[in-house]
Amino acid sequence: MPKGSSVVAEIDGRQLKLTNLDKVLYPSGFTKGEVIDYHARIAPVYLPHLRGRALTFRRFPDGTDRPGFFEKRCPDHRPEWVAVALGPGDRRGGIEYCCVEEPAALVWAGNMAAVEIHAPMARAVDIDTPCAVVFDFDPGPHTDISTCCEIAVHVREILTAVELEGCCKTSGSKGLQLYVPLNTPGLSHDDAARFALAAGQVLEKRLPKRVTTVMAKAQRPGKIFVDWSQNAHHKTTIAPYSLRARPDPTVSTPVSWKEVESCADAEIELRFEPADVLGRVAEHGDLFAPVLELRQRLPG
């Protein structure tokens, strides 16, 4: 990505004016130009997880150490080639969300300082049918991502018992997420939430001092909250390969089960920045590809 205050870039025949490239967006010194560069370089694996979905941007035009804002309604000033899709509405009715379908759209999002991109479990063409179940492991006080990994391994045992497979990614913040790909018709968001809650409650009984499915903050010290409610119709989850608005430019990164097990044993730390992620993709490809491809059905 060229250095300088602004530049006109051509991406697959699309022209974009990129501005304030030297502006620091992270306290660590990571700039807007570097955000855009990451978006451009990670696009081949990032885009498949965004295409066809009604996306929510979390924008930080003044940097991640200043208040940002969620943007559901796609801005009117978007380029004409940025598609929109109807998603969950508000009191004013349906909302047209941005769809990021091509590398230029991902670069455009970076130029707006859309540091985080949050995606629903369902595609816009059928917003009532989730493509996956998500387990969102949220560490309470005195726990960390290592504890999340420990609980994820236990969830995998439950999944194996009902002949299901799952893939994990870091949240890019403090936690971990496990996706169970489905990619089959006939499933509702309520079905997905019930399954995630049931699995969480099994663990809650087995490991009462380590796991809770209760949302109340008072229940969380020393425990991992299995947030089954992320499967609700109106909810979104940080997309795989999205940057996070932290002091450093950490990324929500797909990880292997071997890495999850090693982190559970406190042998490695699962924390990745853009250069790490690009290197991992060059070596391993998209570890989250099965979430888009694998067809499975929930039991019952």
Structural features:
300 residues; alpha+beta; DNA primase, PRIM domain; Alpha-Beta Plaits; 2 domains; six-stranded mixed beta sheet; four-stranded antiparallel beta sheet; 7 helices; 22% strand
Plain-language structure description:
With 300 residues, the chain is of the alpha+beta class. The chain folds into two domains: 6-120, DNA primase, PRIM domain; 132-292, Alpha-Beta Plaits, CATH 3.30.70. It has seven helices and 14 strands. The protein has a six-stranded mixed β-sheet with strand order 11-12-8-10-9-14. It has a four-stranded antiparallel β-sheet with strand order 4-3-7-13. It has a two-stranded antiparallel ribbon with strand order 1-2. Strand 5 (84-90) and strand 6 form a beta hairpin. The longest helix has 18 residues, at 189-206. It is globular. The model has no long low-confidence stretch (mean pLDDT 95).
